[in-house]
Amino acid sequence: MGSYSSTSLADSIAEAGIAQGDTISLQVSLGRLGLPDGANTIPSIVKLVIDAVLDALGESGTLIVPTYTYSIGRGTPYEVEKTPSEIGEFTEAFRTIPGVIRSRDPMLSNCGIGPKAHAVLRDISHSCCGEGSAFHNLRKHNAKICTLGLGLYYATFIQHIEEMFAVPFRMHKQFTGTVIESAVKSEETWTYFAAPYLDNCVPNPLAMEVRAKQAGIVKLASVGRGQLVCVDANSYFDFGFNELARNPWLTAKGPPCSENLIRRHMSREND
Predict the structure, then answer these.
(1) CA–CA separation, 57 vs 237, rounded Å?
(2) Distance of alpha carbon 56 from its chain centroid, rounded?
(3) CA distance from start to end of the chain
(4) Strand, coil or helix: what is 39?
């Protein structure tokens, strides 16, 4: 009970609506799925999952995987080719696959492989989640937002929806730091839509996932002890935007507080 195989994973991928030629953004927690048949080491499990997804997408499909480093927020240099992902072994294993390319975002980098990877990841602004970001480009290229072993609320795409709506519990915060690519150093300023360390502003993205599932725009498929969750990026964006229009504090703990209070907290955190 709870096990899965490459064959059953392929069936689940199809059940979730992922097909040849698709562009998908995938966030993964392997530990929540249980052990697959025939693989009992992290490298072998990672290979089984990546192979199954890439096979489903085919040569015309594109796989995008977050490889966040938070470098610029920590005040450390970000080296595009070398800085390890900080969000799990799956992401770091994907980063090192031959042919994978990576974005220059020194906070929320993504890696990708496939014909649309360059357009999604390299043609970006200096906004981590907003206009011209990789998340915005996922919409432009009609991508699907997927999570495996995680709820949809873990998908960082929700922050893109929040930023484009301009939710009142987050504010733009600029970070300046060093980005290194092909041994060339560059001092760059990037903008992150941050929430202050204020209890009212603690993220609550699960509220959006619940409503999206109720609206029927999310597809689910069982994988081992967990699920594969998939939603069309543009459908999710439009739905989320409309939900925030009804309640701008939907994806925060709340209750709503004043802009002045949020600004004071942000100002103190910047000092």
Answers:
(1) 23
(2) 20
(3) 52
(4) coil
Please state at what angle helix 233-246 crosses helix 157-165, rounded to 10 degrees. Answer: 50
pLDDT in tens, the chain (271 residues): 468 999 999 999 999 999 999 999 999 999 899 999 988 888 999 999 999 999 999 999 999 999 999 999 999 999 999 999 999 999 999 999 999 999 999 999 999 999 999 999 999 999 999 999 999 999 999 999 999 999 999 999 999 999 999 999 999 999 999 999 999 999 999 999 999 999 999 999 999 999 999 999 999 999 999 999 999 999 999 999 999 999 999 999 999 998 899 888 887 776 5
CA angle 94, 1, 92 (to 5 degrees): 10
> What values do phi and psi take at 219, rounded to 5?
-105, 140
Q: Pull the structure tokens for residue 194.
A: 């941050």
Nearest to 185 by CA among 197, 194, 177: 177
Q: Which amino acid is at 24?
A: I
Query: Tokens 């690519």, residue?
Result: 181
1 within a domain of the structure (yes/no): no
Report yes or no on 132 lying in a domain: yes
Look up tokens 């499909």; give the residue. Answer: 61
- Residue 174 located in a structural domain: yes
Structural domain contains residue 43: yes
Alpha helices in 102-232 (DSSP H): 117-121, 134-140, 157-165, 206-214
What is the span of the domain harbouring residue 17? 6-270
> Are 249 and 169 in contact, with CB atoms under 8 Å apart?
yes
As for how many domains the chain has, the answer is 1
Q: What angle do CA 53, 150, 27 make, to 5 degrees?
A: 45
